[in-house]
Amino acid sequence: xxxxxxxxxxxxxxxxxxxxxxxxxxxxxxxxxxxxxxxxxxxxxxxxxxxxxxxxxxxxxxxxxxxxxxxxxxxxxxxxxxxxxxxxxxxxxxxxxxxxxxxxxxxxxxxxxxxxxxxxxxxxxxxxxxxxxxxxxxxxxxxxxxxxxxxxxxxxxxxxxxxxxxxxxxxxxxxxxxxxxxxxxxxxxxxxxxxxxxxxxxxxxxxxxxxxxxxxxxxxxxxxxxxxxxxxxxxxxxxxxxxxxxxxxxxxxxxxxxxxxxxxxxxxxxxxxxxxxxxxxxxxxxxxxxxxxxxxxxxxxxxxxxxxxxxxxxxxxxxxxxxxxxxxxxxxxxxxxxxxxxxxxxxxxxxxxxxxxxxxxxxxxxxxxxxxxxxxxxxxxxxxxxxxxxxxxxxxxxxxxxxxxxxxxxxxxxxxxxxxxxxxxxxxxxxxxxxxxxxxxxxxxxxxxxxxxxxxxxxxxxx
Length: 463
Hints:
Layout: H1 11-24, H2 26-30, E1 36-41, E2 44-46, H3 66-82, E3 86-93, E4 98-105, E5 121-122, H4 150-160, H5 169-179, H6 185-193, H7 205-215, E6 218-219, E7 226-227, H8 237-240, E8 262-267, E9 273-277, E10 288-292, E11 301-304, H9 307-311, E12 330-333, E13 351-354, E14 375-378, E15 397-400, H10 402-410, E16 420-423, H11 431-444, E17 451-458
Parallel strand pairs: 12-13, 13-14, 14-15, 15-16
Antiparallel strand pairs: 1-2, 1-3, 3-4, 4-17, 5-16, 6-8, 7-8, 8-9, 9-10, 10-11
Helix pairs in contact: 1-3, 4-6, 10-11
């Protein structure tokens, strides 16, 4: 049918892009075995093509790369039609124009990575890193701050927003039933004044801005209230495994990923969430207002001792922290941080990252027997003997270079305690070899593999 979008697996879909790749990388492709790699998805693409510089004084425009844009869009349209979110590819093009294109279709057990390489391999379906399982510790002595005053809060807001429409008791009760939690009195008072129905303002930006100014945040409607449990704070395994929960005895806010007592009610206008905290730290107050940063995956920061303080612009009275030197639960050994593995070792160590290293390869023997060690990442070539990993029986996440993984696989020594894994790759690593290695690891847990598809075509000789 004329105008029908071809399939992702039709060479015609890729031909315009392959011609651009050949024009840009002719010398590399002319070498036997020479390949070019890239990736294309619905959210963007990374194809090694040269960028044309825009005229002096003008920002780059789509028109400056129209040929690339059109070629990539042709592929993306095919991906969308075939229900594929993204693919990585490698291509070999002979001097005669014979083209061998290999597509790597992501596995549902593999998170997106950087460029054409896979991200974390999820070896146990549905698994999450240890911090995502941590709940806040009970603090039976916690009480509301002395400044909490629902009546004053309501009076102040009625003066500021005389025309606001509040929620009914029935609507508040319905929100509580949906959340499975009783809203604190201050939050009820807030919604009894204004239910923050943004549809009432339509396109009146000034009215919406005025409302946010008076309630000191971009207030969510009752139907948008949610409990910020750990599951609501997504982070890729590869990064989440590097986090740790560390709530000190003098903490005001418990530094967990999420809590059944964090009720998110608004936004600060910059993407950070504001929540009423019903599970405060040992020195906090029930009902204090906290901020969950969009740039962080663990913990929260105190904003106000109470919702009343937030509305009345009162500063929080956060107590001074005691200076207690404790060894870190997350340690970094590299040329600019700790100078040895021994310096990182202590019973509370949970995460160890070995980075760029100028000295002799390191032994992992000092780590044996550590009760809480769950994450180990090691840069390529930094380990004296990868088989020492077999002594680390509590690992849930392991990231190694291809050679180190090869040693473990060939020896049958890949730790069975793992829930996820990752392959540390250097720039220029062959995506096909990395995908094959990933599939070997996935097969050990009977997980779905990365699918490789070969597409052949002929671009003809260069004109």
